[in-house]
């Protein structure tokens, strides 16, 4: 989804609102756009995909969710589209509560929020915090149970070892 966001948002496929883009990205350095071959330049010389803003009379895309529900929906199959929607629903609370976007790397554009600001942090810490320490006790129990089963298997295996019968000196 990160690639889909970075490759389609603010392109000819999903042109961005000029005012919102100017608010959030005007002072962003060019180095932030190098991910997935994007550039801020209107006419790139290196073959990178330029930022495309909506022309007069063209309805701009305000969020990546709008892009998914519009142009991307019409060019993808239903199964992929359903997984895109599921991901967007998963990311929405994290973007709203933790101001993060993407798992390990922040996306170039928000998934569900308008483009008035640029995401600066990934959601991996927020996702870990939402899971909390609730998995520590079940994890500990699983490790202890595994060790007990290993010991039981070792004792059971010893029962199958061949024992030599004692020889009596007859």
Topology overview:
Elements lengths: L1 H7 L9 H8 L12 E2 L9 E2 L13 H11 L3 H21 L25 H8 L4 H24 L11
Beginning-to-end CA distance, first to last residue? 81 Å
Order of helices and strands: HHEEHHHH
Q: Which regions are unreliable across 5 or more consecutive residues at pLDDT < 50? A: none
| Helical run tally | 6
Work out the number of β strands.
2
Structural class, judged by helices and strands?
Answer: mainly alpha
Strand content: under 5%
Largest sheet: 2 strands, parallel
Q: What's the overall geometry?
A: elongated
Mean pLDDT level? 82
Protein model, in words:
The structure is a single chain. This protein is mostly helical and 170 residues long. It has two domains: 2-122, no CATH class; 135-163. 46% of the residues lie in helices and 2% in strands. Helix 3 (64-74) packs antiparallel against helix 4 (78-98). The chain is elongated, with a radius of gyration of 27 Å. The N and C termini lie far apart (81 Å).
Short structural description:
With 170 residues, the protein is mainly alpha-helical.
Task: Provide keyphrases for this structure.
single chain, 170 residues, mainly alpha, 2 domains, two-stranded parallel sheet, 2 strands, 46% helix, 2% strand, elongated
